[in-house]
Amino acid sequence: MTVGKYSIVSPSEGQPLPDSHKLVVRVSSSKGNNYHLGDQVDSGTFGFLATESGDYTTCFWANKHKPPVKMTIDFDWKSGVAAKDWSKIAKKGQIETMEIELKKLYDTVASIHEEMFYLRERYETIMAVIIAVNS
Fold first, then answer.
1. 90 or 20: which leads in pLDDT
2. Is the peptide bond before 16 cis (omega within 30 degrees of 0)?
3. Disordered: where is this region (predicted)?
4. Model confidence pLDDT, tens digit, residues 2-43
5. Given CA atoms 31, 35, 40, 41 in this order, what sign does their dihedral have?
6. Starting from the edge strand earliest in sequence, which strands make up the sheet with 2-9, in order?
7. Residue 129 to residues 17, 117, 120, 123, 132: CA-CA distances in angstroms?
8. Which residue from 28, 62, 31, 23 is spatially nearest to 46, judged by alpha carbons?
């Protein structure tokens, strides 16, 4: 899953965006298939499931600006796990339950880690005894 959002940043902070600040936006695959097209927009969002392998691109362009205008675009692209809105998926109670389970798993991993160090030290001690006996 891939999601994105974009918006033109106002050239004058605190002021509304001028009407002349509009973009054409296109999201497409490397094979030329379009997944989003925004015509004369100042902001927007898109989302799609990637069905093709390869790169996906987003193109922004501004037509017919005389005199030429410089624009700054705020752009956010997320894919995979980052694209999911977890706040809408899990409720607070579920998150707390998951947090407790995660802490239990962390403690288990820490215990296994300590056991591995203990076994490694014990192995080295036994090997030292074997070498001493065989000498």
1. 20
2. no
3. 1-20
4. 899 999 988 788 888 877 788 899 999 989 999 999 998 989
5. negative
6. 43-48, 2-9, 72-79
7. 79, 19, 14, 10, 5
8. 28
SS3 for 32? coil
Phi, psi of 69 (to 5 degrees): -120, 135
Query: DSSP letter string over 40-104?
Result: EESEEEEEE---SSS-EEEEEE----SS----EEEEEEEEGGGGS-HHHHS-HHHHHHHHHHHHH
Decide if 21 contacts 8 (C-beta within 8 A). Answer: yes
Q: C-alpha angle with apex 106: 117 to 104, nearest 5 degrees?
A: 125
Which pLDDT score is estimated for 41? 92
